[in-house]
Amino acid sequence: MNITQIKDQKFTRPEAAEYIGVAARTLANWHSSGRVKIPFYKVGRKKTIYLKSDLDAYLASVRQSA
């Protein structure tokens, strides 16, 4: 696996939620309400895919320095 593949690793909603430390339902609520905008792809009617690079960008944006 090269660096590009790691950066563009794909996560399902439950995997993405675990990666950023929230419940899968919270992630779904953020998208339906528009409260937090993390890019995602819809695959079919039910499956939602997130890229690791987008999740990392979100985590960097909410990071607080001491």
TrEMBL record:
InterPro entries: DNA-bd_dom_put_sf, HTH_17. Pfam families: HTH_17. Residues 12-61 form the Helix-turn-helix domain. This is Helix-turn-helix domain-containing protein. It comes from Salmonella enterica (Salmonella choleraesuis).
